[in-house]
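Quality-control log, excerpt.
Job 1 of 2 completed; input and output follow.
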Amino acid sequence: MDSERGIELKQLMFGDIASRTRVQPKDEIAWRKFLTGVFAGFGFEYHPTIEGYVVDYLVEKLGLILECNGEGHRGYNKEQEKQRDRILTRRHALVRFHNLVSVETLFNGILQAKPGKVIRLYNWQNTASYV
């Protein structure tokens, strides 16, 4: 249901509620397991609420938010996402990464991250380049 047509159908059937449902794809779960080990001792949290928004991962001691954006994010409301990003980056660095991105690419993005800035590590036009 996360194909372009599937996203359109969810929007028609459920409106904005479709974007608030949380399905945990296997890639997000795999990233959670990996990142939990990497950021042990740094206040790593999964799905905490920040400023009223649930984020995928928070590394509290680094002031870092990580968002694992799979294909389902294509259908999100772009204006709402921009507003969400503005609020989240007031106090945190934000890295949005495609669930198929390499570890090296993710950590290069993390090294560039700083509050007030959103690092995007995906290209919806060419997601095949991540595998």
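Job 2 of 2 completed; input and output follow.
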Amino acid sequence: KKAGKNKKQIAQELGLDPATVKKYYSMSDVQYLSYRQKLLERTKRYSCFKNEILEIYYLNDHKVLNMAAVYDYLEEKYGSLCGNEQTLRNYIHYLKNTGELKLSKGDFRLFRKVEPLAYGKQLQIDFGEYLTKSNLKLYIFAAVLSASRYKYISFQENPFTTLDLIDHLNDCFDYIGGMPEELVIDQDSIMVVSENAGDIIYTEKFLSFIEEMELKMFVCRKADPQSKGKIENVIKYVKNNFLTVRDFSNLE
């Protein structure tokens, strides 16, 4: 501000939300110090969870965690908490600023939003794998419905077969109360044998299923995760939001 830059320039240079810049821009030095003091008093509500929070990050190799995942975990374990998610966020920033919590750096990618599809138009599906801290290997089936982002998740202990996939899809349709107009998949070997000059050759059992169910198919190109970004995010959500702060020793 003293350098003569306006709010828009500051937001762009620092990568901050314009509303945040506007709030601080209008403060005097005295007002800012008073605001910071009140903020510190609020964040210290979570000081009783300090060791628990530090342990969560320690067990996750000090990776950057989704703050909602940490909040959900603490709420699930202790019930009603002493502050909201934003207060927890402030406390974790406080731990970082004081050097008590140091995070490892990761790579980040930025994407633009695309226009949402009609409700019920598409169901995107994908698979994932996760090893819990107790060395339980989980195979993840995930589905997300447009445009509601309604999610369905299921786990199993063995690699997926075509029949496993069909069972999960039937359960998913029961769960969401209907079928999508179109199913979005990648070229996984339990669904697709090969692509021949743009023609998709499906596995025998999967072809019988989609014909019986009269499902339209959209098959993503190979090595193109952006074409099914919604379901990629759901897989990340399952791993980073749900599984990363919990431990399971068996499927039940």
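Post-run check on job 2. DSSP finds nine helices and seven strands in the chain.
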